[in-house]
Write a sequence for this structure.
């Protein structure tokens, strides 16, 4: 069971990394607007427009 | 009195000599862009539009290869049939002030080599609009990206300043139907955004800590039965402590701060019992871990903090940006004026026009200053100020106001008040003050938290007294922890959030959960008249001719684009299509045409009766004028065939809606800018008891009325125009109806996207149902707390029981909130729900 003394702190480090990544995405504003992305899903795929002349 | 609703009549009437019955029944054509009915006078063809706005947007889309917009819009509106489709708005302005260096200092940031600006857009109504605006890079090579925030109605544009001026982008957006405005000075929004983001990070940390501490508890509970190695036991307890204590002290700090200020100001707030529970748990858990014996409750408390933060976030999420109202009002004044001096006429910024200066206002221009007419004769559209749709006749000596529109001819005006002294600027200040000075709304749950805390502390004292200090402390500690009002704190935000989401799908946008309780209780509802209780446009309110006469009138009026012709086409009974020839329109008089072999004249008395023997019927004319309607006469071959009354008709659902609201206990008042006789006539027509029905109210008078009424009771204001904006901001709850000015929508707390007064009733009913759900939630959570308290006093509570009871109570509250049908759809929609 002494392995727990290694594994648990290791898991905590991973948790910190995960929370850090979450905080980073919040700071970058990725979670500011949760309604508009849902609307964008309704669009048809307009891939050909990328190649259309600007 | 016939209602202004068209009826479809039967087969063609062949008694009419020489009438060419074309065979088809008059069908209303639909505007290609917005789907609204098109008046018959517009050019027939495959493409018809209801207004020039829709036409210009349609061609803008077609020429840029963006016609896919229409398919998307169609899908969206097919899925939600109750949403009203708005006409395209284009202002046709040049937006030159967007290139001003001062504008750029305030609103534009740099982002690397590119520039960024956030603009508020009018007219964002559906997902197709989001798609369209985000296609801006396709329309202008200088634009790198355009990201829309649908909830706020804003777009963030990143573009290259060297390649395109901001004004050209603004003009493009306007031509697509989305007039842009600067998105406010941004500082308060920046702060709000920081606060929101911090809350999210707290939730993330709280959630991670909750999950891990729960896992440690699993280990401890599993070992509790068979016994556990002392080392492992200590390890997990210390691990829980080291993880829980620092993070809870940080993540729960909003509650501690709230409790501290509530205690300082002696107000009741839910944060007080919450903080007590959390701190007691942390303290006792730490002591127990250090001493090696005793219970720890870290798992319960971390879960509690996570759920409470989540509830707080849900409640805050529904708030929408309220800032745009004053900016939109300011946008009513033009940015430039034509200043006339001895040296000539120059176009200068409006703010630099001094008092006493002479300003030239061309036909179609917006007026930039308050002033007095010196020369010229014209008509001015003052609808935002007076609520009247009839234009003001302006001649030398008439006073004019900033923000109104000069309709017909050039005017020369001497400025009397400029810049910040105009009535428009006053109105903006009033809206600001009204929204700032509104008292904060305390939720019911907060109000009863004082009593709650008292009881919990009393019970804790009781426990200590029963068990004695030695054995009583762990029981009292357990009591304080398990009675921590988690479910109680979630009761209102959960139910309200769900209800608000459902309301939004029904097309009623409520800007915050705190309004639910205000909307549910009987209150005084103050209605605006024009556009709210009435349709807001000219209609045929009364027509006493036969169906045949109606057909003749329609044929004669088909060649005219006048609003009265549109009203006749819209409201007269439908029947066969007749063809007119020799059409002639006299401005200010009427129309005349030959239909078959008959000569038909439609118009005012002076126009219609100047030939032939017929005269205007005096009693009928008097009766119509007494009702506030304008009489319109129809003669066929010189003989009077019909008299029509033209005016602003009541909304078809107004009477029924008011009656039902009355049954629910609401009281009514009318405040209108229109004449008192018309308001009285309307009150009589509605047949409902009005406490107060006042006409000729200016925006300032409306505001004062609302403020006075609000001191005694809850006041709901329903309005649509700019002249209601201050009143809407000052009311306990302001409701803007569909078709309203953008400024009133921004100033209001509730916005109905469906036409008619029915949404007001639905809001009231929905709020009542939601309040019922909230009450059930509160009862359920209190029941759990009572149960837990009883168990603790009896000494029967263990951390395991606590860890089960708390989530159970929250789950019950959640299920109750979700299953309740607060805002119902009449028929289920099977396709994808857009919002």
């Amino acid at each position: 069971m002494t392995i727990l003394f290694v594994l648990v702190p290791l898991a905590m480090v991973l948790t910190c990394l995960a929370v850090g990544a979450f905080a980073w995405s919040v700071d970058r504003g990725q979670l500011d607007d949760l309604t508009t992305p849902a609307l964008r899903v309704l669009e048809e795929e307009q891939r050909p427009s990328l190649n259309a002349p600007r | 009195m016939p209602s202004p609703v068209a009826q479809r009549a039967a087969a063609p009437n062949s008694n009419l000599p020489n009438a060419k019955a074309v065979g088809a029944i008059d069908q209303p054509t639909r505007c290609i862009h917005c789907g609204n009915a098109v008046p018959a006078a517009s050019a027939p063809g495959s493409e018809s539009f209801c207004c020039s706005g829709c036409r210009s947007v349609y061609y803008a889309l077609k020429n840029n290869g963006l016609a896919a917009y229409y398919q998307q819009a169609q899908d969206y509106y097919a899925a939600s049939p109750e949403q009203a489709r708005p006409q395209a708005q284009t202002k046709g302005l040049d937006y030159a002030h967007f290139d001003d260096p001062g504008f750029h200092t305030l609103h534009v940031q740099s982002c690397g080599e590119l520039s960024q600006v956030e603009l508020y857009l009018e007219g964002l109504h559906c997902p197709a609009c989001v798609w369209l605006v985000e296609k801006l890079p396709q329309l202008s090579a200088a634009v790198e990206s355009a990201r829309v925030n649908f909830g706020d109605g804003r777009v963030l544009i990143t573009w290259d300043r060297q390649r395109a001026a901001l004004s050209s982008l603004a003009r493009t957006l306007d031509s697509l139907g989305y007039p842009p405005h600067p998105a406010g000075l941004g500082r308060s929004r920046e702060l709000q955004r920081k606060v929101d983001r911090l809350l999210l990070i707290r939730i993330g940390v709280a959630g991670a800590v909750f999950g891990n501490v729960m896992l440690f508890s699993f280990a401890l509970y599993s070992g509790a039965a068979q016994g556990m190695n002392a080392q492992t036991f200590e390890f997990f307890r210390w691990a829980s402590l080291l993880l829980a204590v620092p993070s809870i002290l940080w993540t729960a700090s909003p509650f501690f701060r709230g409790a501290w200020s509530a205690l300082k100001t002696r107000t009741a707030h839910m944060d007080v019992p919450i903080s007590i529970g959390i701190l007691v748990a942390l303290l006792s858990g730490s002591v127990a871990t250090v001493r090696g014996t005793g219970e720890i409750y870290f798992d319960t408390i971390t879960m509690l903090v996570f759920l409470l933060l989540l509830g707080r976030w849900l409640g805050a999420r529904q708030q929408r940006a309220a800032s745009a109202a004053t900016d939109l009002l300011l946008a009513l004044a033009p940015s430039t004026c034509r200043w006339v001096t001895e040296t000539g006429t120059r176009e200068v910024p409006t703010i630099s026009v001094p008092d006493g200066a002479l300003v030239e206002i061309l036909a179609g221009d917006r007026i930039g200053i308050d002033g007095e007419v010196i020369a010229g004769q014209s008509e001015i559209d003052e609808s935002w100020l007076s609520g009247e749709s009839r234009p003001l006749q302006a001649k030398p000596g008439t006073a004019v106001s900033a923000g109104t529109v000069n309709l017909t001819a050039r005017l020369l005006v001497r400025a009397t008040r400029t810049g910040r002294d105009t009535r428009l600027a006053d109105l903006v200040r009033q809206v600001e003050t009204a929204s700032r000075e509104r008292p904060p709304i305390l939720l019911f749950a907060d109000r009863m938290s004082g009593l709650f805390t008292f009881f919990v502390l009393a019970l804790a004292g009781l426990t200590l007294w029963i068990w004695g200090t030695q054995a009583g402390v762990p029981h009292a500690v357990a009591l304080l922890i398990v009675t921590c009002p988690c479910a109680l704190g979630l009761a209102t935000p959960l139910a309200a959030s769900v209800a608000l989401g459902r309301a939004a799908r029904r097309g009623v946008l409520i800007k915050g959960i705190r309004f639910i309780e205000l909307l549910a209780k009987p209150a005084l509802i103050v209605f605006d008249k024009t556009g709210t209780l009435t349709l807001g446009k000219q209609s045929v309110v009364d027509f006493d001719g036969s169906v045949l006469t109606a057909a003749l009138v329609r044929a004669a009026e088909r060649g005219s684009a006048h609003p009265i012709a549109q009203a006749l086409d819209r409201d007269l009974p439908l029947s066969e299509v007749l063809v007119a020839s020799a059409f002639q329109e006299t401005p200010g008089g009427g129309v005349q045409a030959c239909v078959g072999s008959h000569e038909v004249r439609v118009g005012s008395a002076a126009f219609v009766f100047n030939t032939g023997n017929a005269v205007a019927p005096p009693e009928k004319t008097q009766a119509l004028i007494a009702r506030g309607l304008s009489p319109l006469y129809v003669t066929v071959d010189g003989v009077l065939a019909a008299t029509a009354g033209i005016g602003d008709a009541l909304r078809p659902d107004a009477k029924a809606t008011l009656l039902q609201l009355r049954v629910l206990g609401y009281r009514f008042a009318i405040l209108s800018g229109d004449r008192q006789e018309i308001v009285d006539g309307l009150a009589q027509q509605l047949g409902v008891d009005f406490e107060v029905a006042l006409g000729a109210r200016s925006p300032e008078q409306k505001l004062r009325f609302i403020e006075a009424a609000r001191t005694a009771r809850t006041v709901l204001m329903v309005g649509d125009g700019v002249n209601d904006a201050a009143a809407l901001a000052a009311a306990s709850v302001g409701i803007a109806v569909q078709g309203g000015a953008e400024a009133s929508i921004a100033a209001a707390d509730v916005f109905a996207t469906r036409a008619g007064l029915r949404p007001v009733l639905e809001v009231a009913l929905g709020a009542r149902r939601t309040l019922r759900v909230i009450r059930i939630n509160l009862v359920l959570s209190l029941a759990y707390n009572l149960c837990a308290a009883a168990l603790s006093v009896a000494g029967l509570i263990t951390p395991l029981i606590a860890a089960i009871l708390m989530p159970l109570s929250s789950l019950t509250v959640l299920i109750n909130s979700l299953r309740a049908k607060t805002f119902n759809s009449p028929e289920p929609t099977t396709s994808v729900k857009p919002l």
User: Anything to note?
Assistant: The two ends of chain A are 65 Å apart (CA to CA). Residues 4-27 of chain A form the longest helix (24 residues). The interface with chain B takes residues 1, 4-5, 8, 11-12, 15, 18-19, 22-23, 26-27, 29, 31-36, 38-40, 42-44, 46, 49, 52, 54 of chain A (CB under 8 Å). Residues 46-54 of chain A have pLDDT under 50 and may be disordered.
